[in-house]
Amino acid sequence: MKQQLKTTAWIAAAALAVSVAVVIGGYWRSFYLELTPNLSAVALTPADNVPLGGNAVAAIGMTLPLAASVDKIDVEPGDGAVAAGNPEVKFDSYNWSTRKITISQVLRPVKPGVIPPGKVFFTLARGDRRTTVDAEIPGFTAEEIPDLSAGEDLQLADAVALHKQFDRRYLYYTIPAAALAALLIWRLLRRRRTAAPAVPPWDRAMAELVELRGEVKEHNITAIGAFSRLSDVVRNYLEERFQLPASRRTTGEFLNSLDSAASPLPRGQRPFLREFLNTADLVKFAKVPPEPASLERAIESAETLVLVTRPEKTDTAEEHHA
Q: What is the value of pTM for the model shown?
């Protein structure tokens, strides 16, 4: 189950990485496209009989490079109309290295009759580059002034609040990036939770000796097997505690190294170790079964060796901290 979850996590991470690479690739390519909008549609709704004080909405659709943005919009309505409020920029769709937007502007006629076409000027920005392009706003007709003598009131326009809509283009970047970041954080926290603290060699050796003593007491191991395991526990402990090559040398080579002046092993423990290792060789290689009392004394002496050679509590705390 754990392996399956791990594989699924890696597949999801790879898919997210590919998605992010594709999006970044499209954004990078958009820097090499012409900084010129592709106008797809210019429409005015309604185009006829707009009441005085009413609204006519000019909508201009265009396709821009993904890295480009509309920095400034200036609207010049035809004579007899005014721009109401600010232009509204709406994101329509995204196509790898380009995006489609629609710019809307509310126009209000202030005189009846034919309103001629107007102009809208766009300043496009991409990095340090700026360029200005224009498009024509279609003309329209406004209704005649109603006859107020008939008791009709002139309709007054309400205030129009226009807001720039959220550009959904950013979702293509933020969602994959957030998901990938969440996956990496989850893996780091999971690894931190499962990482077990290192057990000092003296504590591990004492635990192994207690376990061996229990197996001997319950007769779950032979005397020869017990003596062989005891020999391995002692050798491994000396190798980790004093960086001695106990498991990679013969008994004779190891005992000779213990007699040197540079040996870190206390002198009081050297006779026991010499006798113990020689006895262990007889048991392992000559298949000489040890006496139960001899095995018990050997385990007790091994425990004494570990207790005598383990660091003081202050040293242990420092090693744990390191």
A: 0.44
